[in-house]
Design brief:
38 strands, mainly beta, 6-stranded antiparallel beta sheet, elongated, 7-stranded mixed beta sheet, 743 residues
């Protein structure tokens, strides 16, 4: 089977893709912030049947095999001229011979000529089981066999996500259980296990990734950049060769994986951004190579060879200092601040110093008195902030053993001899002379001294050298025995005014797009970069090119045309939410600022405008919108309708019932001319100088007619209530010179 999508589709041009971007659907969702990172390992996991996946092909540019970072030999990226409307995902169901699905929409099975219909409230319950080397689908409610064969395909009848989903309600992979899927479903058997492949529109595939890679409330331009990076990475692995079954897998553990998680309503806010970039991808020198991405780069990007070991794709990347990412990254980094002459702000680092001195010099160290010099050095080749060595000079207070010098003893002064002669008659009594005691040898004593030590070691020991209770405090750091406790990748540092800051950063691989950096660059209050500028920084040698890719809306029928706006408007207040639906319960797709332009498409009955803004279609509350122009229709041709009021009614300044927007009361029988309508509301001018909106429920219209030669109508520059006795008329041409009525 080749890669022709099961879902029917046709060609679409750039204009149609822009139209689809503007016409993306709206649905009620709840936003739950989740942040993730693409885990790209160098290992290739086997398929469900245990066989490693192999592809054949050679590079059209060099004639040599392109050996993928995943270890896949002879990977050939597809030609940019292929159709990338759909992508096929192998779903991880585990080692199971059957699975259950609840079908919440309609699917057609071509081989059986059967349509299975379910709804969200009443899904069609099916079982897919291995049978006679193929698969068999049965109705779980009745036990009836619905279809069987080597492969069974369920083609989705209605492509749009609004129609419902298929929910996986039984399998042996707990990570996949209860996930929901859009697109077509294809089942076969592999080594006695069910193989489940989801053929899904590319925009829906990206939707199942982007909302997990970035917080769903992330800035729109960052979401768009993430969508294009994920799309291009997936395209690289797409296989258009005869007999191929799938393109990528869902999950985390291989480079073929992008953690595709299907459909969830609480991620729907990312859908417009996945649709808006339909028809765009990145190429290097006219071909696809992997576009890597990760959570953060820690302040400096990396080359693929520095992370994955292969230099195959270094041509598309550069090592850049990324201070925007580092300065705006409140997490994903650990810092140790040292002021020379002090002990620094990390007791772990002080214990590390003492431990290294013990190991190197055999000293029984007690405490760090001061850190006198500190720096990292020996960068990885081609980098400035990826240091392999650490230098430390510190003064340490410790004890040494000394033997004290004995103090000299004083000899007694002898008695002077007498000059007199002794009496010969007296015999002197004998006296006992004391035996002198031997002088004791003094023992060693502990003396506290301060001494400066210097050592150098690999920076990696800050994450691998086990600390112990060196200082006797009783704290053995049971939660972690290392100086740095997080699983980051980059060791570096920078001089401060009178010291040094030691830095441990980069959560992720650092190659390509930094998600933290993209968010910082997309922040409208600081750098305000669009997705093209973000991609240009992280993929400096790639080109953003147009590819063949239809949106889900285009796949459902003829390419839509961009509906002309009914009015041009501006926002009247900063940070006004642009939402996915006409109420505050819908998530915001961005913040509209004062005087930003809006194209109004229609008005709802509850006080919201459906509008286009920043390439997206959504809703904005009327309270913060000012209509500035009703654009002239094509060729300046208006379809006017005359009418009269059936009863006394309100003329309003906005197409919505609100006590504060009443201009005046129009008596029954008031004649007017309708220039255009917002749903049931008509913008009208009256013969006595009023301009505003009336409801079609309280008026009677005559036949429409054509009127030409009118410039665009500048709304609210026209008078509403004229002063008493004034002959002021609306600055609109009178409805004379009627042409042939239409309809």
């Amino acid at each position: 089977m080749n890669n022709k999508p099961m879902i029917s589709k046709g060609k679409a041009g750039l204009a149609a893709r822009i139209a689809a971007c503007a016409l993306c659907a709206v649905f009620l969702i709840v936003s739950i912030p989740v942040t993730g990172a693409a885990a790209l390992s160098a290992s290739l996991r086997p398929d469900a049947d245990g066989a490693a996946r192999v592809r054949t092909g050679v590079s059209s540019e060099t004639g040599d095999p392109i050996r993928g970072i995943a270890g896949i030999d002879d990977v050939k990226a597809p030609s940019p001229t292929e159709d990338f409307t759909t992508i096929r995902v192998l779903i991880s169901t585990g080692n199971t011979s059957y699975i259950h699905l609840d079908l919440g929409t309609s699917y057609y099975i071509p081989d059986a000529n059967v349509t299975l219909t379910g709804t969200e409230a009443s899904p069609r319950l099916i079982k897919v089981a291995v049978s006679d080397g193929g698969v068999k689908i049965t109705d779980r409610s009745t036990g009836d066999v619905i279809a069987s064969g080597e492969t069974v395909e369920l083609e989705r009848v209605t492509i749009g996500y609004e129609a419902g989903v298929a929910k996986l309600t039984y399998c042996e992979n707990s990570n996949t259980l209860d996930r929901m899927y859009l697109g077509d479903l294809r089942f076969s058997a592999a080594s006695g296990k069910v193989r489940f492949i989801n053929t899904v529109p590319m925009a829906y595939y990206l939707y199942g990734i982007v909302g997990y890679e970035l917080n769903t409330s992330s800035y729109p331009e960052a979401l768009k950049a993430q969508a294009i990076a994920a799309k291009t990475y997936g395209i690289f692995f797409m296989d258009f060769s005869e007999g191929s079954e799938y393109d990528v897998q869902d999950g985390w553990t291989s480079a073929l994986y992008q953690a595709y998680r299907g459909f969830r309503e609480n991620r729907l806010v990312t859908m417009p951004y996945c649709i808006c970039v339909a028809g765009e991808a990145l190429t290097y020198n006219g071909r696809f190579i992997p576009t890597f991405y990760g959570h953060s780069d820690g302040g400096e990007t990396a080359l693929p060879s520095q992370v994955f070991g292969s230099s195959q794709y270094d041509v598309g990347y550069d090592v850049y200092i990324d201070d925007i990412e580092f300065d705006n990254n409140s997490g994903s980094k650990q810092l140790i601040n040292v002021e020379y002459g002090g002990v620094g702000d990390s007791s772990r680092f002080r214990d590390f110093i003492l431990g290294k001195i013990n190991d190197l010099f055999g000293e029984d160290s007690f405490a760090v008195v001061s850190i006198n010099d500190l720096y990292t050095f020996d960068p990885v080749e081609g980098t400035q902030r990826n240091m392999r060595k650490l230098h430390v000079t510190a003064t340490v207070k410790h004890y040494i053993e000394v033997i004290p010098t004995p103090e000299p003893t004083e000899e007694p002064t002898p008695e002077p001899e007498l000059d007199e002669e002794p009496d010969p008659t007296e015999t002197a009594a004998p006296t006992d002379e004391p035996t002198p005691e031997p002088t004791a040898t003094p023992g060693p004593v502990q003396v506290e001294v301060e001494e400066e030590f210097t050592f150098e070691c690999p920076t990696s020991q800050l994450r691998s050298y086990a600390l112990s209770d060196i200082d006797g405090s009783g704290d053995n750091y049971s939660s972690s025995k290392y100086v740095f406790t997080s699983n980051y990748k980059l060791y570096w540092g920078k001089q401060t005014e009178n010291g040094y800051t030691l830095i441990f950063s980069r959560y992720g691989n650092g190659v390509g797009l930094s998600q933290i950096g993209a968010l910082a660059r997309a922040n409208p209050d600081t750098y305000a970069q669009d997705y093209r500028e973000i991609l240009a920084f992280y993929f400096p040698h790639f080109d953003l090119v147009e590819i063949t890719e239809q949106t889900p809306e285009e796949m459902g029928g003829p390419s839509p045309t961009l509906a002309p706006p009914l009015a041009y408007a501006v926002c009247t207040d900063d940070n006004t939410n642009f939402r996915m639906g006409p109420s505050t319960s819908y998530p915001s797709m961005g913040k509209v600022q004062t005087d930003e332009h809006l194209d109004l498409l229609e008005a709802t009955s509850n006080g919201w405008y459906k509008a286009r803004w920043n390439g997206m279609t959504g809703y904005i509350i009327m309270d913060y919108v000012r209509i500035i122009l009703f654009p002239s229709p094509q060729d300046g041709l208006y379809i006017l309708t005359d009418g009269t009021t059936d009863t006394t009614c309100n003329l309003r300044s906005e197409p919505y019932i609100r006590s504060t927007n009443v201009i005046t009361r129009l008596p029954a029988g008031t004649a007017f001319t309708s220039w255009m309508h917002f749903g049931k509301w008509h913008y009208v001018t009256t013969e006595n100088g009023y301009a505003g909106f009336v409801s079609s429920a309280v008026v009677t219209f005559s036949d429409p007619y054509e009127y030409t030669g009118v410039e665009s109508l500048v709304y609210k520059q026209y008078p509403t209530l004229p002063p008493p006795g004034s002959s002021l008329k609306p600055a609109l041409p009178p409805a004379f010179g009627k042409e042939q009525p239409r309809g």
